[in-house]
Design a protein that fits this description.
8 helices; two-stranded antiparallel sheet; 256 residues
Amino acid sequence: PWFERDPAVLERPFYVMERLPGEVPIPSPGASGAGPFLPSERAALGVEVAARLAELHAVDWNALGLDFLGAPPPGRGAAERELARWEERLDRAALPRAPILADALLWLHAHVPETGEITLVHGDYRLGNWLVVRDAGGARLAGILDWEMVHLGDPLEDVAWCESLLWRAGTPLAGALLPPEELSRAYEKASGRRVDPDRLHFYAVLSIVKMVAIMHTGVRAFLDGRAKDLRMAIFDHQLPFLHAALAMLRRWLPGG
């Protein structure tokens, strides 16, 4: 990749990266309701998705000079910083908060987990950001896209986002690939670290709060005239689904 800091070229800093082959399956049920992958593709691709995430978390970010991303304090620091990041986005958007969102935030503050390990975290590792090549040998991962939320933190944040209800494409499968517990086991095998269920659940709830914050931010940008994209004008239409997802994760509704 090549990075240009000078905004005089394209009015802002930018980078150019190598073009990779493949397509980006989207998190949509499709006509069959079965998601974007064939049954024959799911198992191998699911294991590869877990293995690539483990490789990302094994990166020596200190040696690569990525400490400028800012390592959170040990213990509860990683979870506290991410919770504060997305709660601050909600505060800035200043839109009404549904009771289930207020409850989720209170629950998150009361259940901040500790972690003894800080890794590189992609921040948006999920179906829709995977570049997939399909050929006679099956389906394989060619690249990972959308790195704008990369940071240093708890590796289980990425696992929970990858397994989130948000990216199951109408299936019961994490990333429309594997049952969530199987993806967790594949990640455990590839990474050598245990997927603690309590930490994972914290980040699962935070994942939905994060998406609510993104929706609120988009709506606020449109209302303020800072964005003209009509998709942002209807982001609030996605909030009922997100509130239902929070209710499931908080065990108010079945399915969480």
